């Protein structure tokens, strides 16, 4: 992926989007803490790829840097479904900055007082060792 980004520019080709519909009251502070814990625990999410003498080098973001969570409140908007679709498309089509990271994005979209959508996107990385070829 790093090579392709260097050669052809950043692309959303390898993005994996996921949306979760959450019902009931949501403790946003607890949700953010859960995302931060997930981010701290998994080095793959904190990895960035920098070029050193034309070669990719992996660097890790600090475990305590936290995962940014963008929040959007669509309660009461007459065109909330259209706005939700536009926000989702924007997340999917925004390329990741492999040099700066993080390599995950999360958004929390409030639809009603007790209905939220959590949308997150990660790039797809596959190691040859996963396939038995490495």
TrEMBL record:
Organismal lineage: Bacteria, Pseudomonadati, Pseudomonadota, Gammaproteobacteria, Enterobacterales
Transmembrane annotation, as ranges: none
Any one GO MF annotation of this record: catalytic activity
Record-annotated Condensation domain positions: 1-119
Protein name, per record: Condensation domain-containing protein
Native source organism of the sequence: Photorhabdus heterorhabditis
Pfam families documented for this protein: Condensation
Domain of life: Bacteria
């Amino acid at each position: 992926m790093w090579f392709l980004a260097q050669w052809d520019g950043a692309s959303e080709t390898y993005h994996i989007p996921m949306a979760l519909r959450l019902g009931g009251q949501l403790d946003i502070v607890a949700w953010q803490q859960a995302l931060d814990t997930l981010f701290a625990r998994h080095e793959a999410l904190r990895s960035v790829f920098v070029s050193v003498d034309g070669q990719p080098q992996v660097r890790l973001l600090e475990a305590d840097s936290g995962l940014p969570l963008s929040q959007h409140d669509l309660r009461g908007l007459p065109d909330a479904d259209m706005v939700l679709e536009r926000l989702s498309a924007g997340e999917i089509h925004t390329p990741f900055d492999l040099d700066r990271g993080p390599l995950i994005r999360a958004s929390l979209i409030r639809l009603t007082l007790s209905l939220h959508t959590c949308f997150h996107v990660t790039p797809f990385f596959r190691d040859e060792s996963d396939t038995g070829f490495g």
